[in-house]
């Protein structure tokens, strides 16, 4: 922020010509670029950005409306060689990439704080711990598709980036002092390289409460109701749950009304579109009832069984996990970081479930790498996991494990 830009005066850039001039000024600044994105999660169907905030030393805070200025690629052209500073970059990168913005180098202040073992890693907590500045977080869950954006929201959005570069410098110094700078570099690179998750083959199965529905015909009705809601939500760019909540769709399936009037009479079938779009929902129920494409009640999954079932289903894997998990937790404590940042529980479970044929530090390291572990994580854990697996093979009987 310059002396000419008071804290409460952060106008939205909603004109392409003004945007072009502002980005040129930002490019003339110095050092890393702080970046943040505001979405309208829970309000809109899409995860698009409704506000992009940027700040660089010797420059102003920029609050860009990407709806009014849809071509923001000048940011990429002028600033792609600079380091971009985020807080929780994995949340913002997908929305930025939709806009054609894809940084080459990042610094993630949330990830850095986790690696340093900071107890609280939300943006407000990290800014306060690093700089002694308290941020209000009153508008974090606001509907950022609102236009015009209230003045108080804009100040909140600006402050999200205004202090981020100073926080980055403090965290970088601590990473260097603690010997964790290389850990952070690898984590930042992994964040940038992470591929988006593949779409689920049956996304309708994520309906909350679907476990109550029995029978393939009833599942077909649930599927058609979900599809009808998705179609309407996408057309109106409204979060599906705001039209008809999951619990209401499931209630309709469980009631299985015989007429449209009976559907309208279901008390639990609520939501702002539950009656205004009654024909839509009734047609979906009819389509499900008449469908020849009946979904399976159970679908194949590569998910591992819950650990409580391992002793019966794969007792050797159970022993391996029980031996290795405390050692990984102890190593994380030595490094003063959360266990999940040293090695995700899922990674350890998968390697314990299906270990290499010959167990040693090298083969366990290869198995960890195949699961996406970074070199620093492998170096910190492969030897102790291998030793734990060897102990498990030599330990008869079931081990007590309070955490299982």
Estimate the global geometry from the Cα principal axes.
flat
> DSSP helix count?
19
The counted number of beta strands is 6
- Oligomeric state of the chains in view: single chain
In what range is the share of β-strand residues?
Answer: 5-15%
Order of helices and strands: EHEEEHEHEHHHHHHHHHHHHHHHH
Strand neighbour order, sheet with most strands: 1-4-3-2-5-6
Poorly predicted sequence stretches spanning 5 or more consecutive residues: 1-8
Approximate helicity band: 40-55%
Rounded to the nearest angstrom, the radius of gyration is: 26 Å
Distance between the termini: 51 Å
* Mean pLDDT over the full residue set: 94
Largest sheet: 6 strands, mixed
Category from helices, strands and their pairing: alpha/beta
What tags apply to this protein structure?
alpha/beta, 404 residues, 50% helix
Describe what you observe in this structure.
This protein is an alpha/beta fold. Helices cover 50% and strands 7% of the residues. The protein has 19 helices and 6 strands. The chain has helices spanning 16-27, 74-79, 89-98, 109-115, 123-131, 151-162, 164-177, 181-193, 216-236, 240-243, 246-255, 260-264, 278-290, 310-313, 315-334, 339-342, 345-353, 361-370, 375-394, and strands at residues 12-13, 30-38, 51-57, 62-64, 83-86, 105-108. A 6-stranded mixed beta sheet has the order 1-4-3-2-5-6, with helices on both faces. A hairpin with a 4-residue loop joins strand 3 and strand 4. Helix 15 (315-334) runs antiparallel to helix 17. The radius of gyration is 26 Å and the shape is flat. The N and C termini lie far apart (51 Å). The model is unreliable at 1-8 (pLDDT under 50).
